Amino acid sequence: MISIVGIGPGGYDDMTIRAVNAIKNADVVTGYRLYVELVQELIGDKETFCTEMRGEVERCQKAAEYAISGKNVALISSGDAGIYGMAGLMLKILEDHPEIETEIIPGVSACQSGGAVLGAPLVHDFAVISLSDLLTPWSLIEKRLEAAASADFVIVLYNPGSHKRRDYLRKACNTVLKYKSPDTICGLVKNISRDGEEHSIITLDRLKDTPVDMLTTIFIGNSQTTVINGKMVTPRGYQL
Ligand code: SAH
User: Fold this and answer.
1) Is the C-beta atom of 194 inside 6 A of ligand 1?
2) Element (H, E) at 229
3) How far is the centre of ligand 1, averaged over its atoms, from the C-alpha of 240 (Å)?
4) CA 153 – CA 161 distance, rounded (Å)
């Protein structure tokens, strides 16, 4: 049995009870080292198998081996395992093992937890786009940014940059600026639900020149998004 568990953004309080129980009931817990460390208290002295970044295939193959040998495995992913997480890869790796039972336990994704830190930016239609071009060509990322910006979606950016991809956010903002005003309200949230959580609300024009890292999620408002008492709010259209 493999439980593919979304552990939420980081803090225990932001995990679902199902996620907590799946980890408690597992014989072995596998995941990216940082996430396994985040839930170490729940894991206790259970067996673990951790890999570093880019060790995803190895991690899932190992999870499959454990399950085939009869163990209860919890494969953990940050946020929701089905949103830029391990769920798809794990199911693919198990394609030839339909006898292995799987369950996917949803978690609170960074767009939800980060949105809550900022206020209510996702009250209207939104698009989620990852700026990581490790597995997706930049030309396709750009096409999706254009489509979302031209349709005035609120846009949430995951994987907005790293030391190797310093100028990606600037490139993305320049694409979005073809359709959205430089005054568009934007929010950044870093280390959501973890030590060192920070957030800020700025304009799209300023976002373009803001340094970011992989632990940040970005929210670009739509043309109606505003700031109310320091919170980023996208209106739904109610008349007051
Ligand atoms: N499955 C995860 C997303 C994994 S992709 C989820 O559903 O949240 C990794 C990206 O998610 C990061 O680059 C960042 O943009 C975002 N992210 C995940 N956890 C975060 C956190 N605690 N704080 C800020 N951003 C986070």
Assistant:
1) yes
2) none
3) 35
4) 21
